Amino acid sequence: MNDMTLTERNVDIKDIKIAASNVQVHYGETHAIKDVNVSIEDKTVTAFIGPSGCGKSTFLRCLNRMNDTIQTCSVKGNILLDGEDIYDKRVDVVQLRAKVGMVFQKPNPFPKSIYDNVAYGPKIHGMARGKSELDEIVEKALRRAAIWEEVKDRLNAPGTGLSGGQQQRLCIARAVATEPEVLLMDEPCSALDPIATAQVEELIDELRQRFSVVIVTHSMQQAARVSQKTAFFHLGSLVEFGETGQIFTNPNDPRTESYITGRIG
Amino acid sequence: MPTFWLIACLFLMSAAGFILGRYRAVLSTGGEVRKLHSLPSYYGYNVALSTLLPALAALALWSILQPLVIDARVSGMISTDMNSENTSAELMMSDVQRVSEGLNIAVARNEMTNEEIRVMDADTVDLRSRLADLGIALGSEVRPEILTAARQHQDMTHAGRLMMTIVVVLLAIVGFARSYGLTDKDFRARNVVERCVFALLALAASLAILTTVGIVFSMLFETISFFGLHSWKDFFLGTTWAPNFRGDSELSILPLLWGTIYISLIALLVAVPIGLYAAIYLSEYASSSTRSFAKPLLEILAGIPTIVYGLFALLTVGPMLVRIFGRGSEGLLGLTWMTGATSVLTAGLVMGIMLIPFVSSLSDDIINAVPQSMRDASLGLGATKSETVRQVVIPAALPGIVGAVLLAASRAIGETMIVVMGAGAIAKFSTNPLEAMTTITTRIVSQLTGDTDFASPETLVAFALGLSLFVLTLGLNILALAIVRTYREQYD
C-alpha cells in the first residue's frame, strides 16, 4: 500500500462531471442510501468502497437511472450531470444512459457475435453512417478495451464463447463504443481471475484519459491501484470521500480506518 | 373365493405384516430405536410390501393369462372334433363362452346346480330357452358338442381360479415369512423400501410409454388392413375424398390434409402475433400487480372446453363473418363472397383464439428465462425498452418461442370440435378462406360414427387418417422439443 503515495496523483482541480447532493434512496420500506453528497470529477477514476450491502452499487445505479427498472425503488435529492438534473422530468433516460455507460459485475455479453455485441450501441444511436464507419467504431472500441488483438480474426464468433476476462473486456468495449462521458463499473473484476483483473485494471487506467470512471469494488487494493478519488460507504451513508492516497494512509473517520485495516466488513 | 375378497385378504395380510414387522424390529434391539439401521416403520413397510407385491403381481398375471390358455385349449378341442361343420372355430368359441357364462349365472342365481349341469343332455333339455328365461340370449340351439365344450370351459375356469387363489395366498405367506425372518436390527430395510419406491416410479413412467406404443400399434394394424382393402396410391396421391358406403369410394388424404393445414395456418396467424405480444407485454411491460391478475385471466381461455369454442364459432363468429363478407347489399361491405356461416376463416379465427393462451403462456415462461443481465446490458447502453425486447430479448428467446409455436401448431392440427362446428364438411382443394372445408379429424369422426362395418375400407380409413395425423403431430412435437432443448444451453 506504500506504492500509491508514490504514483503521481493529479491534485489539480478538474471539472466536476457529476455532482450528487442529498441523495436518498428507498427500496419500499428500506432506506438504502442516506443523504449522500459526492462530486465526481472529469477524467478521474473514482472508487466506491465499503462492506457488502452498504449501498455503493445502489448509488452507482442512481447515476444512470438503472434503478428505474426496479419498481419499488425511489430516489430523492439532486444528481447533476454537467449541471443538469438527471432526475428532471424533461431528461430522456435513454439519452442519459448513452452518456453514462455501465459495465456490470458479471460479464453479460449478448448471445450475438462479438462484432454485433460492440456494434449494438452505435447502431441504436445511429452513430455510423455506413458499414465501413461502423467497422471503424467497432475496431476502435475493441482496441480501447485491449481485446482487439485477441478477437480480430473471429469477430463473427459468439461473444458468449470467450473466456470470462475476455467477456468482461468485450462488455467494456461495448460500453465504450457508444462514446459515453462517464463509465460506471459495478465490481467489474469480481468474476475474474487475477490475470484478467490486471488486464481490466490496466484498461481502466487508460480509459481515464477520455472518460470519467466510477468503479465499485470490494478489493481495497484495487481501489488503491486504479483510483484517484475514493468514497467509503457504510450502512447507506457516505462516511468519507477524498483523495485515494489520503483515504488509505490518513483517513479522517475512525470507521474508514477500521474498514481499511480490516476491522469492519 | 371371489377375486375381490382375495385382494382384500392380501391387503389385510399386508397390514398385519406392517404391524408385526415394525414390532419385531423394535423388539430386536430391546426397544432402543436408535440402534436400528432404519426407522421402525421401514421394517414394517418392508414386510408389508414383500407380502403384498409378489402376490398382487401373480394375481394380475394369472388373471390375464388364464382365459387365454383355457380358450386355446377348448378351441383346440372343438376344432379337432368338428372340422366337418362349416362354421368357423371363432364363432363356435364365442358360443362356448356364452353358454359357459350362462351356466355360471344360472348357478349363481340358484336356477341350476352344478350336478344338474354335469348330467345335462343337450338333446333332451332345451337349454336355450332356459337360459333365455334368465336373460341370456343365445344365437342358436345348443348342440351337444358345444355343451360339452362349455362344461370343459367351466371346469377349467373353476380349477384355474382355485389354483390361482392357492398360489397367490401361498406367495403372500412366503413373502411375509421371508421378510419377517429377515427383520433384524442390522437389516437395511430403508434401502429395500427405497428400491421398491424406485420400481413403483419406473413402473408408472413405463406404463405411460407402453400405452402410447399400444395405441400406435393398434392403429398400425388397422391401417395395414385398410391398405389391404384400398390402394395406398389413392390414399396418398389421389385428389378426391368421396366415401361411399356401398363401396368403390375414393379415399384420398390430400384434400383433408390441405383443409387441416389451411385452417391451422389461419389459426396460427391469429394466435402467434397476439399471443406473443401478450407475452411480451406481460413479462416486460406489465407491473407485477397487473401481471398477477392478467396472466391467470388469459389462462382461463385455455380452460374453456373446445366444444364451447365450437358454439362460439357457429353462433357468433360465423354469422358475423357472413354479415361482413356476404349478404350482398344488406351486408357491411356489400359483398356476396360468403354464403354459409361455416368456413375456413370461421374455424381458423376461433381456433386461433383458443391457441392464444397456449402461445402466450409458453412464450412468457421463455421470455422470463432470458437473464435480467441481458436486459440491463441493453438498457445500460441507452436502448429503449422496445429496442431491448426486439434486439436482445426476442432473439435470445427465439428458439424457445419457435418451439412454443410448433407445439401450438400440433394442437391446431389435432383440434376437432371447433372444426366440426365451424369449418363445414366439404373436402376440396380451395384457397378461398370463406368457403367451407374439412379436416382430417372431422372425417375420422364422421367415418366412425353411425352404423359402421369394421371390415370396410370406408371405416378403416379412419385409422389410416389417425395414424397420419399422429405421425404429423409427433414430428412437429419432436421438432419443437429439439429446438427447445438446444435453446436451453444458450446462457451457460
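The mean pLDDT of chain A is 86.
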